[in-house]
Amino acid sequence: NIKLSKKNLNITPSVTLTIDAKIKQMKSEGIDVISFGVGEPDFHTPDNIKKAAVKVIEKGSTGYTAASGLPQLKEVICQKLEKENKLHYKPENIIVSNGAKHSLFNIFQAICNPDDEVVIPTPYWVSYPELVKMADATPVYIECSEDNGFKLKKEDLISVITRNTKAIILNSPSNPTGSLYTKEELEEIAEIAVKHDILVVADEIYEKLVYDGEEHISIASLNEEIKERTIVINGMSKGYAMTGWRIGYTASNTEIAKIMGNIQSHATSNPNTIAQYASIEGLTGDQTSIEEMRRAFDERRKYMVNRINQIKDISCITPKGAFYVMMNISKWIGREIKGNKIKNSIDFAEVLLENANVAIVPGLAFGADDFIRLSYATSLENIEEGLNRIDNFLNS
Ligand code: PLP
Protein backbone atom coordinates (compact mmCIF):
# COMPACT_ATOMS: atom_id res chain seq x y z
CA ASN A 1 0.00 0.00 0.00
CA ILE A 2 2.59 2.52 -1.12
CA LYS A 3 1.39 6.14 -1.25
CA LEU A 4 2.32 7.79 -4.54
CA SER A 5 2.73 11.49 -5.29
CA LYS A 6 -0.47 13.23 -4.16
CA LYS A 7 0.18 16.22 -6.35
CA ASN A 8 0.61 14.18 -9.50
CA LEU A 9 -2.35 11.90 -8.89
CA ASN A 10 -4.43 14.87 -9.99
CA ILE A 11 -2.69 15.31 -13.32
CA THR A 12 -4.89 14.16 -16.20
CA PRO A 13 -3.43 12.67 -19.39
CA SER A 14 -3.32 14.97 -22.43
CA VAL A 15 -6.73 14.53 -24.10
CA THR A 16 -5.38 15.42 -27.51
CA LEU A 17 -2.57 12.87 -27.31
CA THR A 18 -5.06 10.26 -26.06
CA ILE A 19 -7.36 10.92 -29.01
CA ASP A 20 -4.39 10.82 -31.36
CA ALA A 21 -3.48 7.37 -30.02
CA LYS A 22 -7.08 6.18 -30.51
CA ILE A 23 -7.14 7.41 -34.11
CA LYS A 24 -3.84 5.69 -34.89
CA GLN A 25 -5.24 2.50 -33.37
CA MET A 26 -8.44 2.71 -35.47
CA LYS A 27 -6.42 3.36 -38.62
CA SER A 28 -4.19 0.37 -37.91
CA GLU A 29 -7.35 -1.74 -37.70
CA GLY A 30 -8.16 -0.64 -41.23
CA ILE A 31 -10.98 1.75 -40.25
CA ASP A 32 -11.31 4.71 -42.61
CA VAL A 33 -11.13 7.52 -40.05
CA ILE A 34 -10.90 11.16 -41.04
CA SER A 35 -9.00 12.92 -38.34
CA PHE A 36 -9.41 16.55 -37.44
CA GLY A 37 -7.71 15.79 -34.16
CA VAL A 38 -4.08 16.33 -35.00
CA GLY A 39 -1.96 19.06 -33.52
CA GLU A 40 0.91 18.81 -35.95
CA PRO A 41 1.61 19.89 -39.52
CA ASP A 42 1.00 17.10 -42.04
CA PHE A 43 4.05 18.26 -44.01
CA HIS A 44 7.50 16.71 -43.94
CA THR A 45 10.31 18.63 -42.32
CA PRO A 46 11.90 20.75 -45.11
CA ASP A 47 14.75 19.00 -46.97
CA ASN A 48 17.47 21.49 -46.07
CA ILE A 49 16.81 20.80 -42.37
CA LYS A 50 16.82 17.02 -42.81
CA LYS A 51 20.08 17.23 -44.77
CA ALA A 52 21.69 19.39 -42.11
CA ALA A 53 20.87 16.70 -39.53
CA VAL A 54 22.37 13.92 -41.66
CA LYS A 55 25.51 15.98 -42.11
CA VAL A 56 25.86 16.51 -38.36
CA ILE A 57 25.60 12.78 -37.73
CA GLU A 58 28.17 12.01 -40.42
CA LYS A 59 30.51 14.64 -39.03
CA GLY A 60 30.17 13.07 -35.59
CA SER A 61 28.90 16.11 -33.68
CA THR A 62 26.72 13.83 -31.62
CA GLY A 63 27.84 14.38 -28.03
CA TYR A 64 26.29 16.46 -25.27
CA THR A 65 26.03 20.21 -25.71
CA ALA A 66 25.73 22.78 -22.94
CA ALA A 67 22.69 21.74 -20.89
CA SER A 68 20.74 24.91 -21.70
CA GLY A 69 21.49 24.64 -25.42
CA LEU A 70 24.16 24.89 -28.08
CA PRO A 71 25.82 28.35 -28.00
CA GLN A 72 25.63 28.71 -31.82
CA LEU A 73 21.90 27.93 -31.75
CA LYS A 74 21.34 30.50 -28.98
CA GLU A 75 23.12 33.08 -31.15
CA VAL A 76 20.89 32.22 -34.08
CA ILE A 77 17.77 32.43 -31.89
CA CYS A 78 18.86 35.90 -30.73
CA GLN A 79 19.26 36.96 -34.37
CA LYS A 80 15.83 35.56 -35.21
CA LEU A 81 14.19 37.38 -32.28
CA GLU A 82 15.91 40.62 -33.26
CA LYS A 83 14.98 40.40 -36.92
CA GLU A 84 11.47 38.96 -36.73
CA ASN A 85 10.19 40.11 -33.35
CA LYS A 86 12.09 43.34 -32.65
CA LEU A 87 13.41 41.76 -29.47
CA HIS A 88 16.95 42.28 -28.29
CA TYR A 89 18.28 39.37 -26.23
CA LYS A 90 21.71 37.92 -25.52
CA PRO A 91 22.51 34.18 -25.49
CA GLU A 92 22.36 34.14 -21.69
CA ASN A 93 18.64 35.00 -21.96
CA ILE A 94 17.92 31.91 -24.06
CA ILE A 95 17.19 28.34 -22.89
CA VAL A 96 16.75 25.65 -25.52
CA SER A 97 14.56 22.75 -24.38
CA ASN A 98 12.95 19.51 -25.54
CA GLY A 99 10.04 21.22 -27.27
CA ALA A 100 8.01 24.24 -26.21
CA LYS A 101 6.06 22.03 -23.83
CA HIS A 102 9.25 21.36 -21.91
CA SER A 103 10.03 25.11 -22.00
CA LEU A 104 6.66 25.75 -20.37
CA PHE A 105 7.29 23.07 -17.75
CA ASN A 106 10.61 24.73 -16.89
CA ILE A 107 8.99 28.16 -16.69
CA PHE A 108 6.34 27.23 -14.14
CA GLN A 109 8.87 25.27 -12.10
CA ALA A 110 11.09 28.35 -12.13
CA ILE A 111 8.50 31.00 -11.25
CA CYS A 112 5.82 29.36 -9.08
CA ASN A 113 5.42 28.84 -5.36
CA PRO A 114 2.51 27.19 -3.53
CA ASP A 115 -0.44 29.63 -3.30
CA ASP A 116 0.58 31.34 -6.53
CA GLU A 117 -2.15 31.83 -9.08
CA VAL A 118 -1.63 31.69 -12.82
CA VAL A 119 -4.29 33.26 -15.02
CA ILE A 120 -5.33 31.11 -17.97
CA PRO A 121 -7.67 32.55 -20.60
CA THR A 122 -10.25 29.93 -21.69
CA PRO A 123 -10.41 28.19 -24.19
CA TYR A 124 -6.84 27.21 -23.32
CA TRP A 125 -4.28 24.78 -24.66
CA VAL A 126 -4.79 21.48 -22.80
CA SER A 127 -1.44 21.38 -21.06
CA TYR A 128 -1.44 24.80 -19.39
CA PRO A 129 -3.55 23.91 -16.33
CA GLU A 130 -1.64 20.69 -15.69
CA LEU A 131 1.76 22.37 -16.10
CA VAL A 132 0.71 25.01 -13.58
CA LYS A 133 -0.54 22.37 -11.13
CA MET A 134 2.69 20.39 -11.47
CA ALA A 135 4.45 23.51 -10.21
CA ASP A 136 2.20 23.60 -7.08
CA ALA A 137 0.39 26.72 -8.32
CA THR A 138 -3.32 27.20 -9.00
CA PRO A 139 -4.84 27.91 -12.41
CA VAL A 140 -7.36 30.76 -12.48
CA TYR A 141 -9.56 30.69 -15.55
CA ILE A 142 -11.09 33.57 -17.44
CA GLU A 143 -13.73 32.69 -19.97
CA CYS A 144 -13.18 34.47 -23.27
CA SER A 145 -16.32 34.52 -25.38
CA GLU A 146 -16.67 33.68 -29.03
CA ASP A 147 -18.27 37.13 -29.47
CA ASN A 148 -14.98 38.69 -28.44
CA GLY A 149 -12.99 36.44 -30.81
CA PHE A 150 -12.09 34.22 -27.81
CA LYS A 151 -9.83 36.99 -26.59
CA LEU A 152 -9.26 38.28 -23.11
CA LYS A 153 -11.02 41.47 -22.06
CA LYS A 154 -9.09 43.96 -20.01
CA GLU A 155 -11.78 44.26 -17.32
CA ASP A 156 -12.01 40.48 -16.93
CA LEU A 157 -8.27 40.25 -16.41
CA ILE A 158 -8.32 43.01 -13.79
CA SER A 159 -11.21 41.32 -11.98
CA VAL A 160 -9.27 38.11 -11.24
CA ILE A 161 -6.02 39.68 -10.07
CA THR A 162 -5.19 39.07 -6.42
CA ARG A 163 -2.01 39.44 -4.34
CA ASN A 164 -1.27 35.84 -5.30
CA THR A 165 -1.39 36.35 -9.05
CA LYS A 166 2.04 35.38 -10.34
CA ALA A 167 1.56 35.21 -14.08
CA ILE A 168 -0.79 35.24 -17.00
CA ILE A 169 -0.51 32.91 -19.97
CA LEU A 170 -0.93 34.53 -23.35
CA ASN A 171 -1.04 32.27 -26.39
CA SER A 172 -1.20 34.23 -29.63
CA PRO A 173 -1.91 32.87 -32.20
CA SER A 174 -3.92 30.52 -30.05
CA ASN A 175 -4.43 26.80 -29.90
CA PRO A 176 -7.37 25.98 -29.93
CA THR A 177 -9.09 29.18 -31.12
CA GLY A 178 -6.70 30.58 -33.73
CA SER A 179 -7.20 34.05 -32.29
CA LEU A 180 -4.50 36.63 -32.67
CA TYR A 181 -4.06 39.63 -30.37
CA THR A 182 -3.63 43.06 -31.92
CA LYS A 183 -1.02 45.55 -30.81
CA GLU A 184 -3.64 47.60 -28.97
CA GLU A 185 -4.94 44.55 -27.09
CA LEU A 186 -1.41 43.55 -26.14
CA GLU A 187 -0.70 47.06 -24.91
CA GLU A 188 -3.69 46.85 -22.57
CA ILE A 189 -2.55 43.53 -21.15
CA ALA A 190 1.03 44.75 -20.83
CA GLU A 191 -0.08 47.81 -18.94
CA ILE A 192 -2.02 45.70 -16.44
CA ALA A 193 0.85 43.24 -16.02
CA VAL A 194 3.34 46.00 -15.30
CA LYS A 195 0.97 47.83 -12.97
CA HIS A 196 0.18 44.72 -10.92
CA ASP A 197 3.66 43.22 -11.10
CA ILE A 198 2.63 40.07 -12.96
CA LEU A 199 4.75 37.94 -15.26
CA VAL A 200 3.55 37.19 -18.79
CA VAL A 201 4.12 33.71 -20.22
CA ALA A 202 3.89 34.44 -23.94
CA ASP A 203 3.53 31.26 -25.97
CA GLU A 204 4.32 32.25 -29.57
CA ILE A 205 4.77 28.77 -31.01
CA TYR A 206 2.27 29.46 -33.85
CA GLU A 207 3.74 32.80 -34.89
CA LYS A 208 4.63 31.63 -38.41
CA LEU A 209 1.02 30.69 -39.11
CA VAL A 210 -0.83 33.97 -39.41
CA TYR A 211 -3.33 34.84 -42.17
CA ASP A 212 -5.29 37.65 -43.82
CA GLY A 213 -2.23 39.88 -43.89
CA GLU A 214 -2.29 40.14 -40.08
CA GLU A 215 0.91 40.53 -38.11
CA HIS A 216 2.07 38.55 -35.11
CA ILE A 217 3.38 40.89 -32.44
CA SER A 218 5.36 39.76 -29.44
CA ILE A 219 4.09 41.42 -26.27
CA ALA A 220 7.69 41.63 -25.05
CA SER A 221 8.52 43.97 -27.93
CA LEU A 222 6.18 46.72 -26.69
CA ASN A 223 8.54 48.26 -24.14
CA GLU A 224 11.40 47.44 -21.76
CA GLU A 225 9.17 47.16 -18.68
CA ILE A 226 6.98 44.43 -20.16
CA LYS A 227 9.96 42.71 -21.78
CA GLU A 228 11.60 42.37 -18.36
CA ARG A 229 8.57 40.47 -17.02
CA THR A 230 7.75 38.39 -20.09
CA ILE A 231 8.99 34.92 -20.89
CA VAL A 232 8.72 34.38 -24.64
CA ILE A 233 8.23 30.79 -25.80
CA ASN A 234 8.78 29.61 -29.32
CA GLY A 235 10.04 26.51 -31.08
CA MET A 236 10.49 24.54 -34.27
CA SER A 237 7.50 22.19 -34.06
CA LYS A 238 4.68 24.05 -35.77
CA GLY A 239 6.21 26.60 -38.12
CA TYR A 240 8.97 24.30 -39.38
CA ALA A 241 7.06 21.00 -39.36
CA MET A 242 9.53 19.62 -36.81
CA THR A 243 7.25 18.21 -34.10
CA GLY A 244 9.25 15.04 -33.56
CA TRP A 245 12.60 16.80 -33.34
CA ARG A 246 11.63 18.32 -29.98
CA ILE A 247 13.20 21.76 -30.00
CA GLY A 248 11.59 24.67 -28.16
CA TYR A 249 13.13 27.73 -26.57
CA THR A 250 12.52 30.62 -24.21
CA ALA A 251 13.76 34.17 -24.00
CA SER A 252 13.52 35.83 -20.61
CA ASN A 253 15.44 37.94 -18.16
CA THR A 254 18.71 36.32 -17.05
CA GLU A 255 17.46 35.54 -13.55
CA ILE A 256 14.60 33.36 -14.79
CA ALA A 257 16.79 31.89 -17.55
CA LYS A 258 19.37 30.86 -15.01
CA ILE A 259 16.85 29.01 -12.82
CA MET A 260 15.36 27.25 -15.84
CA GLY A 261 18.84 26.28 -17.01
CA ASN A 262 19.65 24.83 -13.60
CA ILE A 263 16.42 22.81 -13.52
CA GLN A 264 17.03 21.50 -17.02
CA SER A 265 20.64 20.59 -16.23
CA HIS A 266 19.36 18.02 -13.74
CA ALA A 267 16.13 16.96 -15.40
CA THR A 268 17.15 16.28 -19.00
CA SER A 269 20.56 17.82 -19.79
CA ASN A 270 20.65 19.29 -23.30
CA PRO A 271 17.92 18.74 -25.88
CA ASN A 272 18.88 16.45 -28.72
CA THR A 273 22.17 17.66 -30.20
CA ILE A 274 21.39 16.73 -33.80
CA ALA A 275 18.01 18.47 -33.65
CA GLN A 276 19.71 21.57 -32.26
CA TYR A 277 22.13 21.73 -35.21
CA ALA A 278 19.25 21.10 -37.61
CA SER A 279 17.34 23.98 -36.00
CA ILE A 280 20.22 26.32 -36.87
CA GLU A 281 19.64 25.41 -40.51
CA GLY A 282 15.89 25.80 -40.01
CA LEU A 283 16.20 29.32 -38.63
CA THR A 284 18.94 30.55 -40.96
CA GLY A 285 18.29 28.58 -44.18
CA ASP A 286 15.89 29.15 -47.05
CA GLN A 287 12.42 29.99 -45.68
CA THR A 288 10.50 29.32 -48.94
CA SER A 289 9.00 26.03 -47.78
CA ILE A 290 7.78 27.65 -44.57
CA GLU A 291 5.76 30.18 -46.57
CA GLU A 292 4.46 27.39 -48.82
CA MET A 293 3.13 25.51 -45.81
CA ARG A 294 1.49 28.67 -44.49
CA ARG A 295 -0.27 29.22 -47.82
CA ALA A 296 -1.53 25.64 -47.86
CA PHE A 297 -2.90 26.04 -44.33
CA ASP A 298 -4.56 29.29 -45.35
CA GLU A 299 -6.34 27.67 -48.28
CA ARG A 300 -7.66 24.90 -46.04
CA ARG A 301 -8.68 27.38 -43.36
CA LYS A 302 -10.83 29.33 -45.80
CA TYR A 303 -12.45 26.19 -47.16
CA MET A 304 -13.18 24.81 -43.71
CA VAL A 305 -14.67 28.00 -42.29
CA ASN A 306 -16.86 28.46 -45.34
CA ARG A 307 -18.10 24.86 -45.36
CA ILE A 308 -18.81 24.74 -41.61
CA ASN A 309 -20.94 27.84 -41.83
CA GLN A 310 -23.02 26.21 -44.57
CA ILE A 311 -23.97 23.29 -42.32
CA LYS A 312 -27.19 23.64 -40.36
CA ASP A 313 -26.93 24.38 -36.63
CA ILE A 314 -23.16 24.59 -36.40
CA SER A 315 -20.94 27.60 -36.96
CA CYS A 316 -17.49 29.03 -36.44
CA ILE A 317 -15.74 32.37 -36.47
CA THR A 318 -12.74 32.86 -38.75
CA PRO A 319 -9.46 32.10 -36.99
CA LYS A 320 -6.54 34.43 -37.74
CA GLY A 321 -3.72 32.04 -36.99
CA ALA A 322 -2.48 28.53 -36.07
CA PHE A 323 -4.31 25.59 -37.75
CA TYR A 324 -7.47 25.08 -35.74
CA VAL A 325 -11.12 26.04 -35.97
CA MET A 326 -13.39 26.13 -32.91
CA MET A 327 -16.75 24.88 -34.11
CA ASN A 328 -19.78 25.98 -32.11
CA ILE A 329 -22.00 22.97 -31.36
CA SER A 330 -24.17 24.61 -28.69
CA LYS A 331 -27.33 24.06 -30.76
CA TRP A 332 -26.76 20.30 -30.55
CA ILE A 333 -26.27 20.10 -26.80
CA GLY A 334 -29.32 18.51 -25.20
CA ARG A 335 -30.54 17.06 -28.51
CA GLU A 336 -30.46 13.54 -29.78
CA ILE A 337 -28.40 12.37 -32.75
CA LYS A 338 -28.95 8.89 -34.17
CA GLY A 339 -30.57 7.82 -30.92
CA ASN A 340 -27.78 9.20 -28.75
CA LYS A 341 -28.44 11.99 -26.28
CA ILE A 342 -25.77 14.70 -26.62
CA LYS A 343 -25.15 16.10 -23.15
CA ASN A 344 -21.79 17.73 -23.83
CA SER A 345 -18.88 18.02 -26.28
CA ILE A 346 -17.48 14.64 -25.22
CA ASP A 347 -20.74 12.89 -26.17
CA PHE A 348 -20.69 14.76 -29.46
CA ALA A 349 -17.12 13.64 -30.17
CA GLU A 350 -17.83 10.01 -29.28
CA VAL A 351 -21.04 9.74 -31.27
CA LEU A 352 -19.39 11.41 -34.26
CA LEU A 353 -16.42 9.06 -34.16
CA GLU A 354 -18.54 5.94 -33.78
CA ASN A 355 -21.18 6.83 -36.37
CA ALA A 356 -19.28 8.83 -38.94
CA ASN A 357 -15.63 7.86 -38.42
CA VAL A 358 -14.65 11.47 -37.93
CA ALA A 359 -12.31 12.34 -35.08
CA ILE A 360 -12.33 15.77 -33.44
CA VAL A 361 -11.32 17.06 -30.03
CA PRO A 362 -14.17 17.90 -27.62
CA GLY A 363 -14.07 21.48 -26.40
CA LEU A 364 -14.19 20.35 -22.79
CA ALA A 365 -10.49 19.52 -23.18
CA PHE A 366 -9.94 23.27 -23.62
CA GLY A 367 -12.47 24.33 -21.00
CA ALA A 368 -15.11 25.20 -23.64
CA ASP A 369 -17.89 22.61 -23.68
CA ASP A 370 -20.05 24.31 -26.35
CA PHE A 371 -17.33 23.73 -28.94
CA ILE A 372 -15.27 21.11 -30.68
CA ARG A 373 -11.84 21.74 -32.17
CA LEU A 374 -11.08 20.83 -35.75
CA SER A 375 -7.51 20.90 -36.98
CA TYR A 376 -6.90 21.69 -40.63
CA ALA A 377 -3.44 20.21 -40.58
CA THR A 378 -4.73 17.61 -43.03
CA SER A 379 -5.29 17.56 -46.79
CA LEU A 380 -8.08 19.51 -48.50
CA GLU A 381 -9.55 16.19 -49.70
CA ASN A 382 -9.73 14.97 -46.12
CA ILE A 383 -11.27 18.22 -44.98
CA GLU A 384 -13.88 18.04 -47.70
CA GLU A 385 -14.72 14.40 -46.97
CA GLY A 386 -14.71 14.91 -43.19
CA LEU A 387 -17.06 17.88 -43.34
CA ASN A 388 -19.37 16.04 -45.73
CA ARG A 389 -19.51 13.25 -43.19
CA ILE A 390 -20.29 15.71 -40.39
CA ASP A 391 -23.03 17.30 -42.52
CA ASN A 392 -24.58 13.90 -43.31
CA PHE A 393 -24.25 12.78 -39.73
CA LEU A 394 -26.03 15.83 -38.31
CA ASN A 395 -28.59 16.46 -40.99
CA SER A 396 -29.67 13.17 -42.52
N1 PLP B 1 2.12 25.50 -27.02
C1 PLP B 1 1.02 25.30 -27.75
C2 PLP B 1 -0.04 26.33 -27.73
C3 PLP B 1 0.87 24.12 -28.49
O1 PLP B 1 -0.23 23.92 -29.22
C4 PLP B 1 1.90 23.15 -28.46
C5 PLP B 1 1.75 21.87 -29.18
O2 PLP B 1 0.68 21.38 -29.41
C6 PLP B 1 3.02 23.42 -27.70
C7 PLP B 1 3.11 24.60 -26.99
C8 PLP B 1 4.15 22.44 -27.57
O3 PLP B 1 4.87 22.27 -28.73
P1 PLP B 1 6.22 21.43 -28.75
O4 PLP B 1 6.43 20.86 -27.41
O5 PLP B 1 6.03 20.39 -29.81
O6 PLP B 1 7.29 22.42 -29.13
Polypeptide structure, described:
Helix content is 42%, strand content 15%. It has 396 residues and is α/β, with parallel strands linked by helices. The chain folds into 2 domains: 146 residues, Aspartate Aminotransferase, domain 1 (Alpha-Beta Complex); 222 residues, Aspartate Aminotransferase, domain 2. Strands 2-8-7-6-5-3-4 form a 7-stranded mixed beta sheet, with helices on both faces. Strands 9-10-15-14 form a 4-stranded antiparallel beta sheet. Strand 6, helix 9 and strand 7 form a beta-alpha-beta unit. It is globular. The model has no long low-confidence stretch (mean pLDDT 96). The chain binds pyridoxal-5'-phosphate (PLP). Pyridoxal-5'-phosphate binds next to helix 5. Keywords: Aminotransferase, Pyridoxal phosphate, Transferase. This is Aminotransferase. It comes from Natronincola ferrireducens. Its cofactor is pyridoxal 5'-phosphate.
Write the layout of secondary structure elements.
Blueprint lengths: L5 H4 L5 H14 L5 E2 L11 H13 L11 H15 L8 E4 L2 H12 L5 E6 L4 H8 L3 E6 L10 H7 L4 E7 L11 H14 L2 E5 L20 H5 L1 E6 L12 E4 L2 H14 L5 H12 L3 H21 L6 E2 L7 E5 L7 E2 L2 E2 L3 H12 L1 E2 L1 E2 L8 E5 L4 H16 L1
Parallel strand pairs: 1-13, 3-4, 3-5, 5-6, 6-7
Antiparallel strand pairs: 2-8, 7-8, 9-10, 10-15, 11-12, 14-15
Helix pairs in contact: 3-11, 4-11, 5-6, 5-10, 12-14
The chain binds pyridoxal-5'-phosphate.
For the biggest sheet, the summary is: 7 strands, mixed
What binds here, in terms of ligands, is: pyridoxal-5'-phosphate
The tally of helices reads 14
Please state the overall shape, judged from the principal axes of the Cα atoms. globular
Tally of domains: 2
- Based on the structure given, which CATH architecture of the largest domain is correct? 3-Layer(aba) Sandwich
- If strands are numbered along the chain, what order do they take across the biggest sheet? 2-8-7-6-5-3-4
Give the radius of gyration: 21 Å
Q: Helix/strand/pairing class, anyone?
A: alpha/beta
Q: Low-confidence stretches at least 5 residues in length (pLDDT < 50)? A: none
Distance between the termini: 53 Å
CATH superfamily of the largest domain: Type I PLP-dependent aspartate aminotransferase-like (Major domain)
| Overall strand count | 15
Please identify the top-level CATH class of the largest domain: Alpha Beta
Helical content band: 40-55%
What sequence of helices (H) and strands (E) makes up the elements?
A: HHEHHEHEHEHEHEHEEHHHEEEEHEEEH
